[in-house]
Design a protein that fits this description.
mainly beta, 1 helix, 9 strands, Cyclophilin_TM1367, Cyclophilin TM1367-like domain-containing protein, Cyclophilin-like_dom_sf
């Protein structure tokens, strides 16, 4: 059982909130469900989610499966592999992000081509 559900087109992924950015997490939870047309940037998807949240424990290098919010650009992001900003195989954001969650299994995203419709909802 997960406490967050992420759907990318017709793929449903289980995810878990983490407490590295509690103010950002609470703001996102209040807005659920969230959805939008995501843009792909390497092995990252991101879409607009305008929130007023401060930077919290920000990092550019994030773990595989990270769910993060970019306050400067008002984007919610999913990372599953290298991006154009990566220096190796690690996922790397273009600028510091607040990591708020983790996808349990990102293997289904490896076949994704282009952008996608993404939806975040409370887990089941």
């Amino acid at each position: 059982m997960s406490d967050l559900s992420v759907t990318v087109d017709d793929i449903t992924l289980e995810a878990t909130w983490i407490d590295d950015a509690p103010e950002t997490r609470r703001a996102l939870e209040r807005e659920l469900p969230l959805e939008g047309e995501a843009v792909r940037w390497g092995d990252e998807l991101y879409f607009d989610v305008p929130l007023e949240v401060p930077p919290e424990n920000q990092s550019e290098e994030v773990p595989v499966g990270a769910i993060a919010y970019w306050p400067t650009g008002s984007k919610l992001c999913l990372f599953w592999g290298p991006t154009p900003a990566s220096r190796g195989e690690e996922p790397r954001a273009t600028a510091p992000v607040n990591v708020v969650g983790r996808l349990e299994d990102v293997s289904a995203l490896s076949d994704l081509e282009g952008g996608a419709r993404v939806r975040f909802d409370a887990g089941k």
